[in-house]
């Protein structure tokens, strides 16, 4: 079955999102899911893959033409940054059963994923793996290490195609918020209306303590394909296949997920507009500062007040 054009599919995803919003706490509601069991896929069946789209930070142009001393000096070149793997309009074949969809995604994306890890100097499959997302920048970074407890290296930065809500944590069902905090991937689900999806372990203990007692907290927060979001991180089909291929090398709960409102937490903590979130963000900053310092994944717990505690 041929997938519909991207624009039509996006409208369909938005319509589906509207219906889910009325009936489900997150992007997808289901139970008893796990990464599909491995099996052998026979036949060639290789998808055509578009080349990676890279977005670089702009660099101020230079010129050998003498400039008038009365004109303002040209802006200095911006510091170079890692390329971003932009989301794409490529669409997976969602008519396939989930098991085959998963197998085909892994077989197709494995060369790309191995190349990313090789360039970063990290063994694949990795010993430690984590996704670090920034809502304001709409980016998700992949970090991994070759040894358990070892220093992680950045594998790639992915553009997030869609993420609903505003800065601030998710606190209850229907607030459209992407959570903020420290989570793991609970399971992978290939029978998804969003091509492939991996469940983020919201609500965690901090969410339960800080959330309201009078209404449900919601759930089913996913990292998935397509480009529509109800509290989820939508990565587009092509990019979620790469993330899926990475995550499938680990058992459930072994892939860490850190979600922050922004890379620049210091700026947010100075902004009076977000004062109600400052205490929570200061707690997130403790963990972020720790990871930024040594790039090692750590254990996370919560105390009775709903405060994150960071261990080894």
> What is the architecture of the domain at 81-261 at the second tier of CATH?
Beta Barrel
Distance between the termini: 49 Å
Beta content comes to 15-25%
Strand order of the largest sheet: 1-2-5-4-3-10-6-7-8-9
Let me know the average pLDDT.
Answer: 83
| SSE succession | HEEHEEEEEHEEHEHHEE
| CATH 4th-level superfamily of the domain at 81-261 | L,D-transpeptidase catalytic domain-like
SS-based class:
alpha+beta
How many strands appear in the DSSP assignment?
A: 12
Task: Tell me roughly what share of residues is in helical segments.
Answer: 25-40%
The tally of helices reads: 6
Instruction: Give a quick account of the main beta sheet: strands, pairing sense, barrel closure.
Output: 10 strands, mixed
Rg, please?
A: 21 Å
Instruction: Report the uncertain regions.
Output: 16-25, 29-73
CATH topology of the domain at 81-261: L,D-transpeptidase catalytic domain-like
CA-based shape: globular
């Amino acid at each position: 079955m041929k997938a519909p054009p991207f624009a039509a599919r996006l409208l369909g995803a938005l319509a589906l999102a509207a219906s889910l919003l009325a009936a489900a706490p997150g992007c997808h509601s289901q139970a008893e899911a796990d990464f599909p069991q491995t099996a052998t896929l026979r036949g060639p069946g290789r998808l055509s893959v578009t080349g990676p789209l890279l977005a670089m930070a702009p660099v101020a142009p230079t010129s050998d033409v003498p400039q008038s001393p009365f004109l303002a000096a040209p802006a200095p070149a911006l510091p170079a940054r890692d390329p971003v793997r932009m989301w794409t309009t490529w669409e997976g074949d969602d008519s396939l059963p989930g098991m085959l969809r998963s197998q085909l995604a892994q077989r197709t994306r494995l060369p790309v994923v191995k190349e990313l890890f090789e360039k970063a100097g990290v063994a694949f499959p990795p010993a430690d793996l984590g996704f670090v997302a920034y809502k304001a920048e709409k980016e998700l970074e992949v970090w991994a290490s070759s040894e358990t407890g070892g220093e992680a290296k950045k594998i790639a930065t992915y553009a997030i195609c869609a993420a609903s809500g505003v800065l601030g944590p998710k606190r209850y069902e229907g607030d459209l918020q992407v959570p903020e905090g420290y989570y793991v991937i609970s399971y992978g689900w290939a029978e998804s209306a969003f091509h492939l999806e991996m469940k983020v372990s919201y609500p965690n203990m901090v969410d339960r303590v800080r959330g309201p007692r009078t209404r449900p907290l919601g759930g089913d927060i996913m990292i998935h394909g397509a480009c529509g979001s109800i509290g989820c991180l939508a990565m587009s089909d092509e990019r979620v296949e790469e993330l899926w291929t990475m995550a499938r090398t680990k058992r459930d709960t072994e892939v860490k997920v850190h979600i922050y409102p922004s890379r620049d937490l210091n700026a947010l903590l100075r902004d009076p507009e977000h004062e109600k979130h400052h205490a929570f963000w200061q707690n997130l900053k403790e963990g972020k500062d720790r990871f930024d310092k040594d790039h090692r994944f750590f254990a996370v717990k919560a105390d009775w007040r709903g405060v994150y505690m960071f261990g080894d």
